[in-house]
Amino acid sequence: MPGLTACALLGIAISSVPKSAKSASSVVVLPFLVLQFLSGVYTAVDTIPGWMLDIGALFPLKWLCQGLRGVFLPASAKVLEQAHAWEFGRIALVLGAWRVGGSALCLLTFRWKNRCEG
């Protein structure tokens, strides 16, 4: 649940970046697609270079994916992780910090618009 909340809050915060609905997909999708590759969503974590995983570790998606792998994969698969462990405590701390940061970012960036404003 902390991972879902952190990612949803960041999605709300990033919604203020595009100036129009037409530009939203080009502004938002490409960075998130790159982030998915850096976080080990599409490929095995042990095949991604360490520097890419270090960049991905700055964002909540990497930690969310690691937590899901820890829940759904057998215990023997943890040796494929960068730290050779699931690190559930660290996952909870990082995602909790992203929830707090995402909440603050939402409060700073999100504004309601009426229909006339687009």
Describe this structure in words.
This protein has 118 residues and is mostly helical. The protein has one domain. It is built from 5 helices and no strands. It has helices at residues 2-14, 21-38, 50-56, 60-72, 88-109. The chain is elongated. The mean pLDDT is 87.
Radius of gyration: 16 Å
Number of helices: 5
Through-space gap between termini: 32 Å
Strand percentage, roughly?
Answer: under 5%
Please tell me the total number of domains: 1
* Average residue-wise pLDDT: 87
**SSE pattern, N- to C-terminal:** HHHHH
Helix content: 55-70%
Assign an overall shape: elongated
Counting helices, strands and paired strands, the structural category is mainly alpha
Low-confidence stretches: none
Give the beta-strand count.
0
Characterize the biggest β-sheet. Answer: none
